Amino acid sequence: MKTLIKKTYEDLSKEAAKIIKEAIQEKPNLVLGLATGSTPIGTYKELIRMHREENLDFSQVISFNLDEYLGLSADHHQSYNYFMYKNLFDYININHKNIHIPDGMTENVEEFLKEYEKKIREAGGIDLQLLGIGSDGHIGFNEPGTPLNSRTQIVKLTESTIKDNSRFFEKEEDVPRFAITMGVQTIFEAKKTLLLASSGNKAEAIVKFIEGPITSQITASILQKHPDTIVILDEVAASRLKRRY
Ligand code: F6R
Predict the structure, then answer these.
(1) What pLDDT, in 10s, does the model give residues 49-76?
(2) pLDDT-based confidence at 245, cuts 50/70/90?
């Protein structure tokens, strides 16, 4: 695991976008795993700039998103589907047929979960998976206690995640209690993972994830074993690390 510490969120976002850009240039039909939330917004802005100013071409890129709230339709303003279009897809030349985001309104959940895994397999597996981390150490929506060998599944969100994510909703009660997420093992199977974290409320999760034991209590900790993981932090998120790399 390689850890890069950047001075600011902007520097972190630029570095992450540069890594994604190089991966697309190397493999134009890159299978790119994407995340939502506040953290990747700067990276997406920079990718949009690269598309506009540097002709970064997404036309063959295949995307798979990590997760979606159960019960929110794609046009719901707090859904992760909506987020992805408003923060990235509407501004780049990705082929909409190549976009995969879990369907929060699926009627046959079990079938959907299997199908999502199958589509990832059929695409040849994820080449590069972008990740954020929850303040409870989750990746995707794999909350503490989720088995490390889990695959795409339904999860119940913890109180801490509901609280963290309530900032996007009018009130805390509106945050869905369940979500569909790629499993920990599904994420681990990506050929390369790129985890970003900024700001102080991540510092505790970061120190546990990087310097603590590998445990289902901090699902991100599985990445300690991953053969090709880059973690990019800003100074504040890295502030509790004992070892600086
Ligand atoms: C989002 C996701 C989550 C977030 C994490 C951090 O698709 O899978 O794991 O990456 O909750 O969220 P932010 O970036 O909002 O702090």
Answers:
(1) 999 999 999 999 999 999 999 999 999 9
(2) low
Domain ranges of the chain: 2-182+193-232
State pLDDT tens for residues 7-38: 999 999 999 999 999 999 999 999 999 999 99
Cβ of 102 closer than 6 Å to ligand 1, yes or no, is no
Active-site residue identified among 68, 127, 136, 189: 136
**CATH number for the domain whose boundaries are 2-182+193-232:** 3.40.50.1360
Phi, psi for residue 139 in degrees, rounded to 5: -120, 145
How remote is the C-alpha of 108 from its chain's centroid?
Answer: 24
Pocket of ligand 1 contains residue 134 by CB under 6 Å? yes
Separation CA 147–CA 67 (nearest Å): 17
Please give the distance, rounded to the nearest whole angstrom, from the Cα atom of residue 170 to the centre of ligand 1. Answer: 18
